[in-house]
Design a protein that fits this description.
The complex is a heterodimer of chains A (116) and B (290).
Chain A lengths: L7 E7 L2 E7 L3 E2 L2 H9 L9 E5 L5 E2 L1 H11 L6 E5 L3 H13 L6 E4 L7
Parallel strand pairs in A: 2-4, 3-5, 4-6, 6-7
Antiparallel strand pairs in A: 1-2
Chain B lengths: L1 H7 L16 E4 L2 E5 L8 H17 L3 E4 L4 H9 L2 H8 L18 E7 L2 H15 L4 H22 L3 E8 L4 E8 L4 H4 L8 H9 L12 H12 L3 E14 L11 E21 L11
The chains are: A alpha/beta (116), B alpha+beta (290).
């Protein structure tokens, strides 16, 4: 059951540097799941841009969001970019970043092209 | 169980807090007895509460016997929710031995389940989510968060096994779920954070205070209480000698902050018990209550 929700990570590219992409499954909860996801990332997060791909996410718990933000931004990443996060989960991310005094380093946006 | 819903739903508000007095043990010689025979309405809180108390006794090696509800509908409900099986697993004697027909209630019931790890919590949260997502995806997301957070708290803080149960109340349009453990309790958990007593500890927890020195901790219960209030529900939290019920006035639609009503338990609950009720659309069973 849990293996179905194991987050996927993959390297990505970012203008001016390397971005790490974390792809979330449909449901995420708990601090351990966040830990296991971040533990899958290779190398040092110091100064990295971490992209959180939430396009498949249906729902995520506040503890998961808190731990993810804590590990990524508290771990020295320059920025956490959450793409296509459902609003309740985006609110959990914002709250976690606020508690860490890291709000400017959390960027919420969409990877989808804007409608013409 | 179904008759329990059908008969009593008109006279009992789904938002009413569970009667904690039924979780009190009395002595019968060397044996403790947890007696639900007088329980006129069995909530998921009672089921997980009994399981948690039984787990505590089993762990401590103190003899306990559980007497089920005497009223037939309530008794069938307790059996159908697998309370007897849980007690069997714990080696605790009980009288919930009769067989009941197991109609397919997969959409309406999450029988009493043990939760030990955070992974258990996620699995149970997915089950509750999936039972409500078709009718009300917004409420289903809140239920996922609620079950995942509250059950994960057991794994994180209680240092004891916990139990989860949930039930859809189709006629009333609510889902009720409960989580209990017989662990340290909130007062002991938050002593280092200045908890001056059971009631104060409950308020500290609802304010987002965590035992851990990490600014991102303590978000779970606060979020659950907020979500429950937003979905015209209520949250009941009991630990030690105190309980707090968090709710918004009906029809308030979340415009005003939730109110908390504290109370003293006549008999302490040694651990933590949470029951939440959430309003859910689209839960009506085809043809009404079978």
């Amino acid at each position: 059951m849990i293996s179905q929700t194991t987050p996927q990570t993959r390297p990505g590219s970012e203008a001016g540097g390397l971005a790490v992409i974390i792809e979330l499954p449909s449901m995420v909860a708990g601090r351990r799941m966040a830990d296991s996801l971040v533990d899958l990332l290779d190398g040092d997060l110091d100064g990295a841009v971490v992209v959180l791909d939430c396009h498949a996410l249906v729902t995520g718990s506040p503890s998961f969001a808190a731990q993810l933000v804590s590990r990524v931004l508290g771990g020295g990443a320059a920025e956490l970019r959450a793409q296509d996060a459902p609003e309740p989960f985006a609110a959990h991310l914002r709250e976690a970043a606020r508690r860490l005094d890291a709000t400017p380093r959390l960027v919420l946006g969409s990877a989808r092209p804007a409608p013409v | 169980m179904l008759a329990q819903q059908g008969v009593q739903v008109a006279t009992r508000s789904p938002l009413r807090a569970p009667a904690m007095g039924h979780l009190t043990c009395r002595r019968d010689g060397a044996t403790h007895v947890l007696d639900l025979s007088g329980c006129r309405w069995v909530d998921p809180a009672h089921l997980v509460g009994v399981a948690a108390v039984a787990a505590r006794h089993a762990g401590a090696g103190t003899p306990l016997r559980v007497l089920g509800p005497s009223q037939p509908d309530q008794r069938r409900y307790a059996v159908r929710m697998h309370l007897g099986r849980v007690l069997d697993d714990l080696g605790v004697p009980h009288d919930l031995t009769e067989q009941v027909r197991h109609l397919d209630r997969a959409r309406d019931l999450l029988e009493v389940r043990r939760v030990v790890t955070e992974e258990d919590a996620v699995v149970l949260a997915r089950l509750v989510h999936d039972r409500t997502a078709a009718g009300d995806p917004v409420a289903a997301q809140a239920l996922f968060t609620g079950v995942a957070e509250l059950a994960a708290n057991v794994a994180d803080h209680a240092q004891a096994d916990g139990y989860v149960a949930a039930q859809v109340l189709p006629v009333a349009g609510y889902v009720r779920f409960a989580v209990a453990d017989a662990g340290l309790g909130l007062r002991r958990t938050l002593t280092g954070r200045g908890a001056r007593g059971s009631l104060h500890a409950l308020h500290l927890a609802l304010d987002g205070t965590s035992r851990l020195d990490d600014p991102t901790r303590g978000v779970g219960l606060v979020t659950v209480a907020d979500e429950v209030g937003r979905l015209r529900g209520s949250l009941f939290l009991a630990s030690g000698t105190a309980a707090v019920r968090v709710s918004r006035d009906d029809g308030d639609r979340g415009r005003r902050p939730a109110t908390r009503a504290g109370s003293t338990l006549r008999s302490p609950f040694g651990g933590t018990l949470v029951e939440a009720v959430v309003g859910v659309r689209g839960t009506s069973a085809p043809g009404g209550v079978p």
